[in-house]
Every structure is written in C-alpha cells, then in structure tokens.
Write a structure and sequence with these properties.
With 180 residues, the protein is mainly α. It folds into 2 domains: 1-95, RNA polymerase sigma factor, region 2, helix turn helix motif (Rna Polymerase Sigma Factor, Chain: A); 97-180, Winged helix-like DNA-binding domain superfamily/Winged helix DNA-binding domain (Arc Repressor Mutant, subunit A, Orthogonal Bundle), CATH 1.10.10.10. 76% of the residues lie in helices and 0% in strands. Residues 89-111 have low confidence and may be disordered.
Length: 180
C-alpha cells in the first residue's frame, strides 16, 4: 500500500490516479464531518465537492510539515461556512422545521444520540473541535491548526464541551426517568 505522502507527491506531480486515491481515503470522513456543519445532506455534499476541488487546485501549496488531514479539514470548514452564509442570505428564515419528518425523527431520538445533543448544545467551533478530537481522533495541535485557534483554546473548549455534554446527558436521563 502506498503511503499518504507518496500519493500527495504523485498528485502534485500531476497524477490524477494518486489524487483519486487520496479522495477515497478522506471522502467518507469529510462528508460525515460536513454533515455536522451543514444544514442538509445536499449542502454537505456541495461543501465536500468544493473542498476536493480546492484541494486539487491548491495541492501545490500543501506543506508536508503539517498533516494532510488538517489541511483538508481546514478547507472543508471554510467551505461549510461559505455555504451556510450563502443559505442564510438566500433563504432567510423560510424553513418549515415542524413539517420536516427527518428533523422530527432526530428530535424524537435526541436523548439517544450524543452527537445530536452536542450539535444542539455546543457552538460551531466547539462542536467542530469535539468532533475532530473524538470522531476523527485528531491531535490537539492538528485541531488547533484546522480551526485556526490556539492549542490552549482547543484544550479549554474540549474540557468545557465535555462538561456541557455531561450536564446535558444528566438532564436528559433525569428527564426520561420522570416520564418512565
């Protein structure tokens, strides 16, 4: 199996096959992450496509001193923010959440899904840091670089996120006991 740096070097040299192999390695993980940052699956797919196009276009600027995944996630975060901003401008407040069956299913099983609770309780950057740490197993330094924050900010906010989620889960479990 070819290691990641060899694929990056080959892709930089013009190998579309090498870049396709890099995409295969990261596509599912990036999409899963973008689903937590975007309003819909379609938006997440758009952000993913924009991320992969930007990665291909700017691959020559990738610095191998940093992890490739950190560089990709930074691009993905920017694309998700751009799509989110565009949707706010285009749609305003026209969503009809109460009639969305998918949203109703998510809300109905909210106490069973830690990530749904995290999405609701944490702000965007803290949620992203938490996701990158626990779902993607990224280091504090890589998360800091991806989010353009300091390592101290990342550590403090991961601790705050754990406390907030602990409180939320305790609140949910005590609430469900009252109805059980």
């Amino acid at each position: 199996m070819i290691d990641e740096q060899q694929l990056i070097d080959a892709a930089k040299a013009g190998s579309a096959e090498a870049f396709a192999d890099l995409v295969k390695r990261y596509r599912v993980r990036l999409l899963r992450f973008l689903l937590t940052r975007c309003a819909s699956f379609a938006d997440a797919e758009d952000a993913l496509q924009d991320t992969l196009i930007a990665a291909y276009r700017y691959l020559h600027s990738y610095d191998s001193r940093w992890r490739f995944s950190t560089w990709l996630y930074r691009i993905a975060i920017r694309n998700a923010q751009k799509i989110r901003s565009e949707n706010i401008v285009e749609l305003g407040d026209l969503s009809d959440e109460e009639s969305d069956p998918l949203l109703q299913c998510i809300v109905a099983s909210e106490s069973e899904n830690l990530w749904v609770s995290a999405r609701r309780v944490l702000n965007d950057d803290v949620f992203a840091a938490t996701w990158l740490r626990y779902a993607e197993d990224m280091s504090i330094n890589d998360i800091s670089k991806a989010l353009d924050r300091s390592a101290s900010w990342t550590k403090v906010n991961l601790l705050r996120a754990r406390k907030a989620l602990g409180s939320e889960l305790n609140r949910q479990s005590s609430g469900s006991e009252a109805y059980g």
